[in-house]
Design a protein that fits this description.
Elements: H1 2-13, H2 15-32, H3 39-65, H4 72-100, H5 105-115, H6 121-125
Length: 126
């Protein structure tokens, strides 16, 4: 849905503002996600995360492709390969965390150590 209606938002705000606002909203939604009181609220938050993701992806691809005139296909291929590599790695790590620690807490703790205190990330796997 975000890709369908995102062009109107981008036309109104411009690429830089829509990118910045989308990233800020994604950060806020991801911060609030572990504190969801029930699955229904978590699903609503995920809906908005995916909606914003649908808006931000074409904007990011447009910005990346505007960086070069001759290698647009290479830029697009590398961006997609990186995105799907990250999705695969995230699924592997998330699966291990879900199986070892009940609920979403394991992913929240991992993310905290990864972003806030990366020196202690090794303790998470020991």
């Amino acid at each position: 849905m975000g890709s369908f209606f995102g062009s109107g938002v981008v036309k109104k705000l411009g690429e830089p503002k829509s990118l910045l606002r989308s990233l800020i909203l994604l950060i806020l939604f991801y911060i609030g996600l572990p504190y969801s009181p029930n699955i229904f609220v978590a699903e609503i938050i995920f809906f908005f995360i995916f909606l914003i993701g649908g808006l931000i992806f074409p904007v990011l691809m447009s910005i990346l492709q505007s960086l070069t005139k001759t290698s647009r296909g290479t830029v697009s291929a590398l961006a997609n390969a990186t995105m799907y590599g990250g999705t695969t790695l995230g699924g592997v790590i998330g699966g291990v965390l879900f199986s070892q620690i009940s609920g979403f807490r394991g992913i929240s703790i991992f993310t905290h150590y990864w972003c806030v205190d990366p020196g202690r990330i090794n303790a998470f796997f020991v």
